[in-house]
Design a protein that fits this description.
This protein is mainly β. It has strands at residues 3-7, 10-12, 18-25, 33-39, 46-51, 57-59, 68-73, 78-83, 92-99, 117-121. The chain has no helices and ten strands.
Amino acid sequence: QLQLVESGGGLVQPGGSLRLSCAASGVTLRSYTIGWFRQAPGKEREGVSCIDDRGVATDYPDSVKGRVTISRDDAKNTVYLQMNNLKPEDTAAYYCAARSGSCVFAVGYYGPWGQGTQVTVSS
């Protein structure tokens, strides 16, 4: 059974950095496309970044480009999302999810989802 567990979130000041982790059990992550999504209170879940089964990474919103880096550690069966220069508008619950196929940023194409990890950016 595929299980994804997000971790690494927390409270950081604007301009700070976090590295989120998406650890998998039940599957080998390198065989799947893994997307990172986030959901702020009262807003729809949106894509942030994605790495496909060939290791090709894609960022989604212009607001995160240049500030996020997605990577995969096959030995640890974990996908990471490095986030730098964090802004208050990055505050959200961050989720990872898997799919078979290319990187797309539509929630309905992914599943199952992890439990999420909260990122709060505040001074």
